[in-house]
Write a structure and sequence with these properties.
Blueprint (H helix, E strand, L loop, with lengths): L1 H8 L18 E3 L17 H14 L4 E4 L15 E2 L2 E2 L2 E2 L2 E4 L5 E3 L4 E9 L6 E10 L2 E8 L14 E2 L4 E4 L12 E7 L12 E2 L4 H7 L4 H4 L4
Parallel strand pairs: 1-2
Antiparallel strand pairs: 2-6, 3-4, 5-14, 6-13, 7-12, 8-9, 8-11, 9-10, 10-13
Length: 227
């Protein structure tokens, strides 16, 4: 199923956006939050204010409005949170692409889909308000997850509700709502939801990477953003 998805998705038109279309691709820049970024040695990115300060510097350097990246990055962002430890191993490998920009920014559907599930994952360090869409391409089903949304994004939402490509599905939340992160969108592709609803792991450990990197392929297979 995953290989079929990867083969088919490359033929979809590109690029696709998941944020307000009034923000052009020229206003995007790449952001590195990995443990390999030496600039972060003196920045506690687990603090939303300090993280935002660093992101603002990256945006200023790139003359950009949106900083994005992060698929399979190993990060220190989660090191102080007990929610990211399991069986004596750390979950610190990011499974989606993050889009760091202003709270209130519109989130749009990159492809037509229906609401699979949604909920407010409000534990510290989690997604906060989250929406998951279900999509079909030919005979392949896959899902897209949108995390760190505003609480208003969940109001009047219904299971099975259809969103067309380019339609606004949500807005980005503030740090108090998206549970202690600087404002951003976590965007992730998931092939098999494994029976989960409204939530799915967005970070994994080294020991589970083989499974999750297959079940959660690179979102840029769909988006085709320049890197």
């Amino acid at each position: 199923m995953v290989s079929s998805f990867k083969q088919l998705i490359q033929f979809l038109e590109s690029p696709k956006l998941v944020l307000d279309e009034s923000i052009k691709l020229d206003d995007y820049c790449v952001l590195d939050l990995s443990i390999n970024n030496k600039e972060l040695d003196i920045v506690n990115i687990g603090n939303p204010n300090l993280c935002q300060g660093y992101i603002d510097k990256v945006l200023e350097r790139g003359n950009a409005q949106v900083a994005f990246g992060g698929y399979l990055e190993k990060r220190n962002l989660y090191s102080n949170n007990d929610n990211f430890s399991e069986f004596n191993s750390k979950r610190n490998i990011h499974l989606g692409i993050d889009f760091w920009t202003k709270a209130g920014t519109k989130v749009i559907a990159p492809k037509k889909g229906k609401v699979h599930s949604f909920q407010n994952n409000n534990a510290t360090g989690d997604y906060g308000p989250t929406i998951i869409l279900e999509h079909y391409y030919e005979n392949i089903k896959f899902h897209t997850l949108y995390g760190h949304l505003s609480i208003q994004s969940l109001e009047n939402l219904t299971i099975g509700q259809i969103f067309d490509k380019g339609e606004t599905i949500a807005t980005l939340g503030t740090p108090d709502i998206n549970v202690n992160y600087a404002p951003h969108l976590h965007f992730q592709i998931i092939i098999d939801m494994e029976g989960k609803k409204g939530d799915y792991p967005g970070v994994c450990s080294e020991g589970t990477l083989a499974f999750y990197s297959e079940n959660c392929p690179n979102p840029n297979l769909l988006l085709h953003l320049p890197s």
